[in-house]
């Protein structure tokens, strides 16, 4: 039977899933070795293998879709569901850290001096760099939407400009946030304040980096003519992820930076 | 708060020292409330009576739930703030004993010891 009688994609056998699982095992056990025994070999092996699996797996998805045409509208629908479900799971991930923050900050214990911010903590001024970072991410939300419209309208030059600007704004945010981390008078070890602040903003920063990387891949694909004005789900998925990252920042800003100071 | 006296009497001023007191009069000496009627000597007698009849910490509607940590903490703070304020004014610190009795009743001894040590060292995290 030469052709399929359905619109789904029956994927060819691939080693990446099992290698990805192995990479996850190496990474998690590597984290344990790093935390408890101060050796990072296993962790480095885990992260490296994770990176290689991601590159090769997603390269294969691009080959199957852009070059071999397996991504019918039905397949795309499934991918949309998948991305939405993934982002939903990430929302719950962050919800946990917000829960932890509110648990500790709404009823500060005597050890903290019964107040929030705790005694001795000098929080960052929310109207300083954090406000700039908010503006940067909001602007990047605008530019990514501009890029999307440019793609839909077939305007190649504007699409490239808008997406490049989005990525630049993302990198600017990351650089500023890194500088802020350097400048704080408190560290992650400074009471539950430090823990909640750096774990929540830290994971957010990681997601900004992930989002920026995803957008960069989209930019490269855009330049190489992978997208059509009707079919560019990779870009849409990246744009959704980017908006999610922006919204998480807004909540972080309002609760930890502003209310929490 | 009411009644700012310079003579020795129940001088309680400032928001933090409102404590467990009620604004209305109560008949029985349940040890729960003191009242402010603008008359310092009456108040002074009153607080002494309250202290004499003290049995244990009364219900404080600011802390209605099972976890009474904040109750202990607040009274510990209020006692030391009261002492500090009275000393600054050169007034009688007897009314402060109310907070002392309450925190002694409800705070775990180890907490009080630890907090006293922190105050000694200057590392007490609360605002006194």
Automatic annotation (TrEMBL), chain A:
<keyword id="KW-0812">Transmembrane</keyword>
<dbReference type="GO" id="GO:0005743">
    <property type="term" value="C:mitochondrial inner membrane"/>
</dbReference>
<feature type="transmembrane region" description="Helical">
    <location>
        <begin position="129"/>
        <end position="147"/>
    </location>
</feature>
<dbReference type="GO" id="GO:0006123">
    <property type="term" value="P:mitochondrial electron transport, cytochrome c to oxygen"/>
</dbReference>
<feature type="transmembrane region" description="Helical">
    <location>
        <begin position="240"/>
        <end position="259"/>
    </location>
</feature>
<dbReference type="InterPro" id="IPR013833">
    <property type="entry name" value="Cyt_c_oxidase_su3_a-hlx"/>
</dbReference>
<keyword id="KW-1278">Translocase</keyword>
<keyword id="KW-0496">Mitochondrion</keyword>
<feature type="transmembrane region" description="Helical">
    <location>
        <begin position="41"/>
        <end position="58"/>
    </location>
</feature>
<feature type="transmembrane region" description="Helical">
    <location>
        <begin position="16"/>
        <end position="35"/>
    </location>
</feature>
<feature type="transmembrane region" description="Helical">
    <location>
        <begin position="159"/>
        <end position="179"/>
    </location>
</feature>
<dbReference type="InterPro" id="IPR024791">
    <property type="entry name" value="Cyt_c/ubiquinol_Oxase_su3"/>
</dbReference>
<dbReference type="InterPro" id="IPR000298">
    <property type="entry name" value="Cyt_c_oxidase-like_su3"/>
</dbReference>
<dbReference type="InterPro" id="IPR033945">
    <property type="entry name" value="Cyt_c_oxase_su3_dom"/>
</dbReference>
<keyword id="KW-1133">Transmembrane helix</keyword>
<keyword id="KW-0999">Mitochondrion inner membrane</keyword>
<dbReference type="InterPro" id="IPR035973">
    <property type="entry name" value="Cyt_c_oxidase_su3-like_sf"/>
</dbReference>
<dbReference type="GO" id="GO:0008535">
    <property type="term" value="P:respiratory chain complex IV assembly"/>
</dbReference>
<dbReference type="GO" id="GO:0004129">
    <property type="term" value="F:cytochrome-c oxidase activity"/>
</dbReference>
<feature type="transmembrane region" description="Helical">
    <location>
        <begin position="79"/>
        <end position="102"/>
    </location>
</feature>
<dbReference type="GO" id="GO:0045277">
    <property type="term" value="C:respiratory chain complex IV"/>
</dbReference>
<comment type="function">
    <text>Component of the cytochrome c oxidase, the last enzyme in the mitochondrial electron transport chain which drives oxidative phosphorylation. The respiratory chain contains 3 multisubunit complexes succinate dehydrogenase (complex II, CII), ubiquinol-cytochrome c oxidoreductase (cytochrome b-c1 complex, complex III, CIII) and cytochrome c oxidase (complex IV, CIV), that cooperate to transfer electrons derived from NADH and succinate to molecular oxygen, creating an electrochemical gradient over the inner membrane that drives transmembrane transport and the ATP synthase.</text>
</comment>
<comment type="similarity">
    <text>Belongs to the cytochrome c oxidase subunit 3 family.</text>
</comment>
<keyword id="KW-0472">Membrane</keyword>
<dbReference type="Pfam" id="PF00510">
    <property type="entry name" value="COX3"/>
</dbReference>
<protein>
    <recommendedName>
        <fullName>Cytochrome c oxidase subunit 3</fullName>
    </recommendedName>
</protein>
<feature type="transmembrane region" description="Helical">
    <location>
        <begin position="191"/>
        <end position="220"/>
    </location>
</feature>
<feature type="domain" description="Heme-copper oxidase subunit III family profile">
    <location>
        <begin position="4"/>
        <end position="261"/>
    </location>
</feature>
């Amino acid at each position: 039977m030469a052709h399929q009688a359905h619109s789904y994609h029956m994927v060819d056998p691939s080693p990446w899933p099992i290698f990805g699982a192995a990479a996850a095992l190496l990474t998690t056990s590597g984290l344990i070795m790093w935390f408890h025994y101060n050796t990072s070999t296993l962790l480095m092996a885990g992260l490296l293998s994770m990176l290689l699996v991601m590159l090769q797996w997603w390269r294969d998805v691009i080959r199957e879709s852009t070059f071999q045409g397996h991504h019918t509208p039905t397949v795309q629908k499934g991918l949309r569901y998948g991305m939405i479900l993934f982002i939903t799971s990430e929302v719950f991930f962050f919800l946990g850290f917000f829960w932890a923050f509110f648990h500790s900050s709404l009823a500060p214990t005597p050890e903290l001096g019964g107040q929030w911010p705790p005694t001795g903590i000098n929080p960052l001024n929310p109207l300083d760099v954090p406000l700039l970072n908010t503006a940067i991410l909001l602007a990047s939300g605008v530019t990514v939407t501009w890029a999307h419209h440019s793609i839909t309208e077939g305007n190649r030059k504007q699409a490239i400009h808008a997406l490049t600007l989005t990525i630049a704004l993302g990198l600017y945010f990351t650089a500023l946030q890194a500088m802020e981390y350097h400048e704080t008078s408190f560290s992650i070890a400074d009471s539950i304040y430090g823990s909640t602040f750096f774990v929540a903003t830290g994971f957010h920063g990681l997601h900004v980096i992930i989002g920026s990387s995803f957008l960069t891949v989209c930019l490269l694909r855009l330049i190489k003519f992978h997208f059509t004005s009707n079919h560019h789900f990779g870009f849409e998925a990246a744009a959704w992820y980017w908006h999610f990252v922006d919204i998480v920042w807004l909540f972080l800003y309002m609760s930890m930076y502003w209310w929490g100071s | 708060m009411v009644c700012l006296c310079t003579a020795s009497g129940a001088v309680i001023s400032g928001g933090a020292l409102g404590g467990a007191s009620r604004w209305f009069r109560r008949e029985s000496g349940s040890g729960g409330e003191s009242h402010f009627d603008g008359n310092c000597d009456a108040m002074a007698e009153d607080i002494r009576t309250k202290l004499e009849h003290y049995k244990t910490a009364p219900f404080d509607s600011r802390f209605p739930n099972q976890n009474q940590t904040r109750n202990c903490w607040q009274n510990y703070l209020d006692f030391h703030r009261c002492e500090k304020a009275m000393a600054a004014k050169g007034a009688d610190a007897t009314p402060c004993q109310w907070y002392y009795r309450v925190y002694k009743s409800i705070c775990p001894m180890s907490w009080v010891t630890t907090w006293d040590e922190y105050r000694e060292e200057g590392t007490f995290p609360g605002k006194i």
